[in-house]
Amino acid sequence: MKTVLNRDMHEHIPEMLPVIPTMDVVVFPHMIVPLLVLDEKIIKGINQSLQEAKLVLLLAAKKQINSNEGIATKDLYAIGTVASIMRLIKIPEGGIKILVQGICKANAHDIIASDDSLQATISKVESNDQSNKEHIQAHIKNIKSLAEKMAISGNTFSPDFHIILSKMQDPEKIADFILSHLNLGIEQAQQLLEIDDQAELLEHLYRNLAKEMEVADMQEKIRNNARDSMNKAQKEFYLREQMRAIKKELGEDDVEEIDTMRQKLETLAAPEDVKVEVRRHINRLEKTSPDSMEAAVIRNHLEWIFGLPWQIFTIDNLDIEHAKKVLDEEHYGLKEIKERILDFISIRKLKTDGYAPILCFVGPPGTGKTSLGQSIARSLGRAYARISLGGVKDEAEIRGHRRTYVGAMPGRFVQAIKKAATSNPVVVIDELDKIGSDFRGDPSAAMLEVLDPQQNKTFYDNYLGIPFDLSKVMFIATANSIETISEPLRDRMEIIDVSGYTHEEKLNIAKIHLLKKAINDTGITAHDGLISDELITDLIINYTKESGVRQLERILRKLCSKAARVFVERNEIITFEKDNVQHYLGPRKFLEDELDKEDQIGISNGLAWTAYGGEMIKIEAVLMPGKGKLILTGQLGDVMKESAQAALSYARSHTQQFNIDNKLFINYDIHIHVPAGGVPKDGPSAGITMLTAILSVLTQRPINAHYAMTGELNLRGEVMPIGGVKEKILAAKRNKVDHVILPYKNRHDLTGIEEIAQDIGIIWVQHADEVLHYVLMPLGQEKKTEAVAKAA
Ligand SMILES: Nc1ncnc2c1ncn2[C@@H]1O[C@H](COP(=O)(O)OP(=O)(O)OP(=O)(O)O)[C@@H](O)[C@H]1O
Ligand SMILES: [Mg+2]
User: Fold this and answer.
1) How far is the CA of 544 from the centre of ligand 2 (A)?
2) CA 629 vs CA 13, 626, 645, 713: distances in Å
3) What gap in Å lies between CA 343 and CA 361, rounded to an integer?
4) CA of 717 to the centre of ligand 2 (A)
5) pLDDT 10s digits, 322-350
């Protein structure tokens, strides 16, 4: 209820008025405000004023006045509002409540505070009406249009605000009206009060209104967002419940399964982005019919993800002594590899995230590469998994099939990790050299990613569709030959050569490891002296011909199972001897063949180096009537063909030296055959062997069969170095030749492995003449072969 006072009633304002300090409000002219007054001194002033003009001066306090300190005049603003007292009510508990209405602005010149009063001398502040009328009108227009906008957005004031304002014309009234609606702080309000100029005041009011609207809109927006997200969650929940009900009705009840999956997801130790992805798939699963094909695919996929050992690691056993023990316990020899593993453990001990090499063991079959990988895992206390890449042509084998494809599976690496059940197993990548490639992509390119420490941290399997960290895995690759491994792949690994074993090494391996394993596996515990060392040597020499010990292991197992059979059937413990072993294993396969040791024309012993270790190959040459052609058979590669050609040219250019009739090159063809015709062969290292065979047929001088040789030949007759010296010497020993002819330039290859050359004569040669000196025997010391005899 407002009492509107006629302003003219107070044309005359006294020069001195009692002061009422206002704490949290600035009263503007025309504004009606209730005030609570507790201070005795001020109540006194009010009472006095009621007897006179009923006017007081309202001055806003700059800060909260502390009642203990009393009112300090310096805390009051100097410009205030003269107000008339409209009503006064005494409050029973003490103090009074008054209703005041602002009349005009006034300046307090002197504030006089005595013990029982607070008064001020004042002068009225006249409002400045000089401002431009157009200016004022423009501001009013702005204010009105803003008010309209506010009404439309509906966030600020009630719609009445706009309606009332739109009807107002008087700038003073408009200002009052807006002031009464604004939510102003004391300081802001005081600032407005002190503005004399009407246009300026309107402008300020406009700005304040605009700000008010902005804040209100912003608030509304925040409120809406909050409400939206809540609604969405509620809606989803509701829909989900509905879906469950429908599924139940249809008898498609996979609700429990999905709940379990959600629970599992909560405890899954996977990175957050993976979990987001999994959550998405669970939601999808929920929306599909549980018996559908799609649901099966999703379920399978989720099972794979849940089945992976996220963040599960074994702690490495970095005890060097322990590692040494384990490695020696399970494998004989293999010094270099064992050393390398101990190096690795030492580095790990000093630096947990130190350089972790990817080792690649290269060597002939059956030399313990794969089984050593398992020992390494055991010595480190890590889980073990093996991946065989033999014959893998499809990139998807490595990187996984896309899930769109029926029967899709993750790649082998993810499978291995799952099997190992920890994220840091030792993974043996077997037969890396047997990896192929075809139209389905290049698996070796995918392997690059797996083996690259920069990339395998976030290895992406197409099937999983999420990254998995392979960087903690210790990869060990094995291969028989390094040749077919692509250059970039080779570059990422540390190649360690594992060569074949000598007879003595094989004997030791058999005694210490293979026989024990075979006996254990067959359960024939009480069979001491089952197989003597002498017999083992016999088995090595006459029943096997290999670089490794796989065949030997197989034979030992066979004998042990025979012993088990005899024990079970007849309760007899047998011991095997040279005499009875044939009964179980058949005749000795590689018994020295007298014919093999015969010195013949046109047959020379070459030494080759293959993925299966060293091998001795008898190269054959014959002379037959023809037109001087060179015929080469036995699946020879280009390099080998060329070296045959070079050998022939060397022979033709030295006819005088060897006493050869030049007509032989016109009327005869020379045929060179390298046996084991089905196996492709290549390389230049048979140069001197072919030369020997060619010169032998041309001169009819036999070749000494007790020599085996290897060496590249150039046209000047120099013997050039070759590879695989150790393997070749071992092959020569297996084939029981007495001497090996090797290029002089290879003599350093024997450093460190001198013991293998102990019971065989090594001849280092620089020139073809030296070779021929050793192996070409004088005429007439052999049985001539028929063809050669005729040719002669
Ligand atoms: N030095 C050794 N000490 C003990 N056992 C050995 C040794 N070398 C090989 N073996 C045994 O020989 C058998 C064959 O070895 P393994 O399978 O590891 O050969 P590999 O080098 O991986 O051959 P491949 O190249 O054909 O894969 C295994 O039972 C292994 O334990
Ligand atoms: Mg292997």
Assistant:
1) 19
2) 141, 7, 10, 20
3) 16
4) 41
5) 999 999 999 998 888 898 889 888 888 88
**Cα torsion 181, 185, 186, 190: sign:** negative
Q: Which atom of ligand 1 is nearest to the CA of 334?
A: 1
Total residues belonging to the chain: 792
CA of 136 to the centre of ligand 1 (A): 102
Buried b (16+ CB within 10 A) or exposed e, 313-324: ebebebeeeebe
User: Is 728 a known active-site residue?
Assistant: yes
Q: Which residues of 238-264 are buried (b: 16+ CB within 10 A; e: fewer)?
A: eeeeeebeebeeeeeebbebbeebeee
**Do the bridges between strand 55-60 and strand 16-22 make them parallel or antiparallel, or are there none, so unpaired?**
parallel
pTM over 0.70: no
Per residue in 637-670, pLDDT (tens digit) is 899 999 999 999 999 999 999 888 888 888 999 9
Give bridge partners of residue 100 from the DSSP assignment: 33, 85
Residue 88's H or E segment, with its range, is strand 79-90
**How many of the other CB atoms lie within 10 Å of CB of 623?**
24
Q: Is 155 left (phi over 0), alpha (psi -120 to 50) or beta?
A: alpha
Atom of ligand 1 nearest to the CA of 372: 18
- Phi then psi for 128, rounded to 5 degrees? -90, 110
Helix (H, G, I), strand (E, B) or coil at 343: helix
Does residue 334 line the site of ligand 1, with CB under 6 A? yes
Mutate to test the pocket of ligand 1, among 332, 360, 370 (most ligand atoms within 8 A of CB): 370
Least confidently predicted of 38-42, 244-248, 304-308, 497-501: 244-248
The CA-atom distances, in angstroms, between 591 and each of 299, 460, 538, 615, 736 are 61, 55, 10, 17, 11
In the annotation, is 685 catalytic? yes
Residues 684-711 as b/e (b if ≥16 CB within 10 A, e otherwise) read: bbbbbbbbbbbbbbbbbbbbbbebbbbb
Residue 617: both structure tokens together:
């190959």
